[in-house]
Amino acid sequence: MTSSLHQQLADHIDQGVIPPYQYSYPPRSAYRPLAEGKWSIPDVWARDLTHHQVPELNLYLHVPFCDRKCGFCNLYTIISTDEDVYDAYTDALCTQIRDHAEIIQARRLRTIYIGGGTPALLKPRHFEQIFTTIGEIYPNWRSTAEEVAVEATPSSIADAPDEFKALIDMGLTRANVGIQSLVPREIREAGRGGEDEDVIRRALRTAHELGLPDLSTDLIMGFAGQTPETWRQSVDELAALRPTTISTYFLTVRPDAWFSKTGAYQYMWQPELYERYDYARRVFLDHGYVQEGSVRYKKPGRGGYVQKVLTFHGVPLLGLGVGARSYNSVLDYMCGSVKPSTAEVADYIKRAKGHELAPVTGFELTDEEIVRKRLVLDTFDLDLAELDRFGYQKHAAEFEAVLEAAESNGLVHRLGRRVQLTPKGFKYRDVLSWMFYSGSVKDLDREYYENLHAANKRARKNMGATPVRITGVDLREREGAA
């Protein structure tokens, strides 16, 4: 078995397979409707407490509003710039925070992340209301939280420095700013609208002048029309701007994104993209960054993405707001539909204010799936002894065979029972992670995307559109997993 797995892994590496970025397990594609009344939020989190010697918590708050929809985005977002809607939504979110007071109070609050959508569309008064509500139930959150983060746009920082300074004064430590490319043509054609280099430069300069501890930025490999030269241009310029954190992602247009539904966007997903990965890694390391994960680089002592690192290490995440996902050791779940709409947001506001929210869709975690979750997400540095209480030894033959194949292919170091990725392992981490998926999760994932592809094919046939063309090898023979 080990020799066949060795060869399978070696073949994927030689072929330059590019699977989607593994940021959660099980993926959202494995979620299914939950039996009505079976799961109560207090019971789920009470059971989770029994699995942790030191109870900790990440808090994620979702703001679904955007002023435009990017063509490659499949996140839970709706288009709205209506401040009355923002007011009602913030009221509902704060009600939901209070309803989870006992869950939050029973744990050490490690991080707070406000994502979206575009949370920067909210006004300072909305953030003040949110942070005040957190303070009502957890007074010392500013002392215990190692990261208080918000997603923003370059213009929300550069063009509204006073509002951004207000967030820093409230306790903000990190802003996640979507750049994607420093070549305006690439992001305009991707449907993002784009912001010119001057706005990006002003945003980085403003964040530094205002004293923001960590400004996180990103670049995407594989945009339509992107060339090795334009990729190097973006990498070189961003490195020169010296943000504290930089992430680089392979572009994945998932079947539930607009571009895939219409077939209107042809992007690159070829093995040659790994050469762009190599170039970016070399440049960022030369500029004093260290590699924190397979996609992320940080300035030592300042940058990084604490909530993601802790979630990978098994610290539970409580997701509040419409479309938010919660991860713990009992149930990964959502309290509403996975399909964003204004009607769904309105229903969330009504049910949150009425204290009626409950898990609707999700995935129940067995001990085996808990082990798989850590292996999928956390091979950067994982002590396998932590997994023995969840029955690692019961399935050790299967897991060890994969790890031995990874070691023989130069992807991991074995230090006793500790597993650590090598530099080559960082590069091909997502290829390795897929090998730890359970058969049931693979089947659910395949079914979900086959149904999406079939629906898209019917829709494109009705519209007379040209199907999306993707070149290269896909580990899962589909366009990506959420």
From TrEMBL:
MF-aspect GO terms: 4 iron, 4 sulfur cluster binding; catalytic activity; metal ion binding
Could you identify this protein by its name?
Heme chaperone HemW
Domain Radical SAM core: from-to ranges: 51-290
Keywords from the UniProt entry? Iron, Iron-sulfur, Metal-binding, S-adenosyl-L-methionine
Pfam families the UniProt entry points to: Radical_SAM
Look up the domain of life of the source: Bacteria
Q: How is this protein annotated for GO cellular component? A: cytoplasm
Keyword Metal-binding tagged:
yes
Name the source organism. Streptomyces roseus
Provide one Gene Ontology biological process annotation. Answer: porphyrin-containing compound biosynthetic process
